[in-house]
Amino acid sequence: MNTLGVIVNLDKPGAAEIRPRLLELAARLGLTLRFDPESARDLPNAALLDCEDFPGQVDAVLTMGGDGTLLGAVRRMGDRPVPLLGVNLGKLGFLTGVTEAELEAALTALARGTVESSRRRLLESETRQGKALALNDVVLSWGGSSHIAHLEVSVNGEAITTYTCDGLILATPTGSTGHSLSAGGPVLHPETDALVLCPICPHAMAVRPVVLPGQSRVRVRLCDHSKPLVLACDGQQLGEIGPGDALEVAASPVTVELLHLPGYQYWDVLRQKLHWRGSAVSGLTA
């Protein structure tokens, strides 16, 4: 992987100062960098290429920021995402598993072709306004009123229930450690062929998140007497869903390849990020 697209979240503390080191390491390893224009602000002589043009022009994309930076790159590349390696300059970083201290090791692995990878399926959402892709989740939430929402949910044409709640999250296994986890949803291994249906603050104690087969097609209709809700894909607000409107969500044929350092272990990441502690018997440590 000799030509890399680069996206840097310059809002992260210290992000701008990392770029000269990145250029130095790339030159030493024989890597060619193409910066998204905003990421090269005040960086003279950087070669530029819009993120939307990365497909077909670069071998991989290096994102430097948080998970949101990586998700934004996936969204901008559309249905032809290039393999991504995320360097975490934020707080949690489930998707961006490389630390700033490991930047040289990551570039070396890219140059030598020793990176490991995992392929993640995207979700496709569809409303009357159009379609959108998401790596983490599709969320209906809040809107402009504090009133509760009423959502009729069916799966593959079969009615499930009408949720009385503040909103609804449909998450991929990749996104199960995001908004869904905060709302009480389960953690799924990213290779699980499944979809999480997680109501937000349901007004019934018996209502719990549901794990559906990965090829399920979910239809969510906002009841006629309900308040409008905001639709977001991977945290990006796409518009408002009004009473009587419907949202359909299903697995997309589009997948994205996430790159990792050699020796990457998913459960090691979870133990570290979620502060899981093992027992003396198991010998697991965080």
Briefly say what this structure is.
The chain has 286 residues and is of the alpha+beta class.
Q: How far do the termini sit from each other?
A: 32 Å
The chain-level structural class is: alpha+beta
Provide the low-confidence segments as ranges: none
| Biggest β-sheet description | 6 strands, antiparallel
What's the tally of helices? 5
Sheet with the most strands: spatial strand order = 7-6-17-14-9-10
Mean pLDDT: 92
Strands, count: 17
Net shape: elongated
H-E order: EHEEHEEHEEEEEEHEEEEEEH
| β-sheet strand percentage | 35-45%
Cα-based radius of gyration, to the nearest Å: 20 Å
Helix content: 10-25%
Structural write-up:
- The chain is an alpha+beta fold.
- 17% of the residues lie in helices and 38% in strands.
- The chain is built from five helices and 17 strands.
- It has a six-stranded antiparallel beta sheet, with helices on one face. Strands 13-12-11-8-15-16 form a six-stranded antiparallel beta sheet, with no helix packed on it. It has a five-stranded parallel beta sheet with strand order 2-1-3-4-5, sandwiched between helices.
- Helix 1 (15-29) packs parallel to helix 3.
- The longest helix has 15 residues, at 15-29.
- It is elongated.
- The two termini are 32 Å apart.
- The model has no long low-confidence stretch (mean pLDDT 92).
Q: What secondary-structure arrangement, pairings included, does this model have?
A:
Layout: E1 3-8, H1 15-29, E2 32-35, E3 60-65, H2 67-77, E4 84-88, E5 98-99, H3 103-112, E6 116-127, E7 130-134, E8 137-141, E9 149-155, E10 158-165, E11 167-171, H4 179-182, E12 194-200, E13 210-213, E14 217-222, E15 229-233, E16 236-241, E17 246-260, H5 266-273
Parallel strand pairs: 1-2, 1-3, 3-4, 4-5
Antiparallel strand pairs: 6-7, 6-17, 8-11, 8-15, 9-10, 9-14, 11-12, 12-13, 14-17, 15-16
Helix pairs in contact: 1-3
